[in-house]
Prior knowledge:
By secondary structure, this protein is α+β, with helices and mostly antiparallel strands. Helix content is 43%, strand content 22%. It is elongated, with a radius of gyration of 23 Å. 40% of the residues are buried.
Amino acid sequence: xxxxxxxxxxxxxxxxxxxxxxxxxxxxxxxxxxxxxxxxxxxxxxxxxxxxxxxxxxxxxxxxxxxxxxxxxxxxxxxxxxxxxxxxxxxxxxxxxxxxxxxxxxxxxxxxxxxxxxxxxxxxxxxxxxxxxxxxxxxxxxxxxxxxxxxxxxxxxxxxxxxxxxxxxxxxxxxxxxxxxxxxxxxxxxxxxxxxxxxxxxxxxxxxxxxxxxxxxxxxxxxxxxxxxxxxxxxxxxxxxxxxxxxxxxxxxxxxxxxxxxxxxxxxxxxxxxxxxxxxxxxxxxxxxxxxxxxxxxxxxxxxxxxxxxxxxxxxxxxxxxxxxxxxxxxxxxxxxxxxxxxxxxxxxxxxxxxxxxxxx
Length: 361
């Protein structure tokens, strides 16, 4: 509990001064419940009652387990920026310095929408450190403006020795400048939403000398896929298109062949602020998809984020961060087994749950 208090002890309590349940204890129990599979505030309260004897070995709970209304009220009122700052302090306890590929992408919380506005759910920007396999930051996309959310997230990060990857929505001059300002390099996808830049990237790749390599052959699920990476220096794009410190353009071609002989070819294009070799480029592009497969998919399938129906106040944003905190802790555990298996094991085995918390060094 000392490590947890060191990380989250400065969180300001948004409630009145006569509250019965300590804020730090509420957040700790909510995190423990999430590690054990709780997906709602009702389930957090049920966990607290069911595990009261175990929890009293760690926290005092002088007034007994809190109700689901208490859990809900705390997360509705808790300042999300203060919670995010504490979360980033927790991340630093795992890794003093983030290096390698940092993938940034947005995710909608499908159940978190105002009454009558199902088409406009809450939108968050997530930052994923691929090599560390950790979420390192979260930011609200204000007004569902994912670019604004990304710029706010970038302002929080030290990106020295990092390569930031993002999809074509974020292939913008202000994003490139923000990444370079924070000390990072970038590999930004280019698509037809920027026709002049897209045409220029393709032209340079076709005309220029290139470092080209067959990077990977993957077989499985009744298909095979060959990926080829290609890079051409293109420092002139900084002057002609205004991207800070752009140094090269690149493509990764994926040729997929199914068992019945059908072949599809898909090519992705990028601008880079550093001249990677083709093998490294392929690894960077591959690592970017970890934010979908190892974060967003896990949040939805293993932790029920898409099914979450908390919609009031800061609740959706704070509970999403709580899930990411739990996911980081579970991924830090090196025991064999799936994420869903470890969640069930934590609920069944108090010793394993205690072991998970021991990672909060």
